[in-house]
Amino acid sequence: MAGHSKWHNIQRRKGKQDAIRGQLFTKLSKDIYQAAREGGGNPETNFRLRVAIERARANNLPMENIQRTIAKATGQLEGATYEELLYEGYGPHGVALLLEILTDNRNRTAAEVRHLFRKHGGNLAESGAVAWMFQRFGEIVVPKDKVDADDLMMVALEAGAEDVIERSRTYVVKTTPDNFRAVRMSLEEKGIPYEEASLTYEASTKMDLPEEALEQVYDLVEALESLDDVQTVFTNLDTGDDEEDDE
């Protein structure tokens, strides 16, 4: 049984969504806030903000919420100030975990995250303990039925992409962080549609666990993702992400 299947079997058995609606909206709003604070409130000139807005709209965050968040970030309305952090730790069975944090109170967040690590048999580590295992890259997901493979390959590689990976229903264009924007813009200019585009982390080497052990790790990941200040959790587990489920 592939790691991908095991992971999703566990999710289905628990019968829970990745995040409740309100919690998801909080995370999306924070992402918009940080993007607007750093690069301004115009998505035409602020690429990160544009990505954040598109992701929010895809998840049905109301436009009124988006506009209010941008106004707070650019000083037109009063609001909290957030900072981006990267937390590192080890979960059950020595699994490495990398957490993207967006918080207005780093002491509160550190305490909450440390508590969950301890509760689930892991520990929050010092800076640098885990990050060296991961590489930062851009990922653009293109549906197979919307593009010719040769055309995609040509456009992506000419724009500076590192690779184009074929999956069961999609192609994944991988880029360096520096080339992510140029590759995405090139795809748009050529009329090539995509389902998702984001900067992410991937472990250089991955570990495989049996389903029982994987479930223990999932419990920790689920608990961490339930915190409003935790934007994304990355692990070095081999969950079979390169093999898409055909269900």
UniProtKB/TrEMBL annotation:
The keyword DNA-binding applies. GO terms for biological process: regulation of DNA-templated transcription. It is found in: Cytoplasm. Residues 5-76 form the TACO1/YebC-like N-terminal domain. Keywords: Cytoplasm, DNA-binding, Transcription, Transcription regulation. It comes from the Bacteria. One of its GO terms (molecular function) is DNA binding. Residues 82-237 form the TACO1/YebC-like second and third domain. GO terms for cellular component: cytosol. Pfam families: TACO1_YebC_N, Transcrip_reg. Its main location: cytoplasm. Belongs to the TACO1 family. This is Probable transcriptional regulatory protein Aaci_2117. The lineage of its organism: Bacteria, Bacillati, Bacillota, Bacilli, Bacillales.
